[in-house]
Amino acid sequence: MVHNKESFDEWGIMDESKIIIPTLKTFKVLTRFSGSEAVARTYRDTIDAYDERDLESRLNNCEPCYDDGEEVDVEWYDREGDWQIEHIEQITENIKRIKSLL
């Protein structure tokens, strides 16, 4: 309906050739959240260490860091802030436009 809003008053009496049927496209989107959140994240990793005390010491010294592994779960308790769209890039092309260029 959004693509045909200019001819909305003509619906039911207008020629079907005037109806705009949009094509689905694919986009890459970069978004950014700015604010604060209370969250619990769970990570899994495989780390070489001599014993559990050595392992805890390595993690406390960020060798590797606690979050260097694979994030396996995340739970948000509270989030306050704003989302912004930083960048949009269309990664598929309109086939009709390509044919018209040939």
Describe this structure in words.
With 102 residues, the chain is of the alpha+beta class. The protein has one domain (24-101). The chain has two helices and two strands; from the N terminus they run βαβα. It has helices at 52-60, 95-101, and strands at residues 27-44, 70-90. It has a two-stranded antiparallel ribbon with strand order 1-2. The longest helix has 9 residues, at 52-60. The radius of gyration is 26 Å and the shape is elongated. It starts with 26 loop residues before the first strand and ends with a helix. The mean pLDDT is 84.
List its salient traits.
elongated; two-stranded antiparallel ribbon; 102 residues; alpha+beta
SSE topology sketch:
Blueprint: E1 27-44, H1 52-60, E2 70-90, H2 95-101
Antiparallel strand pairs: 1-2
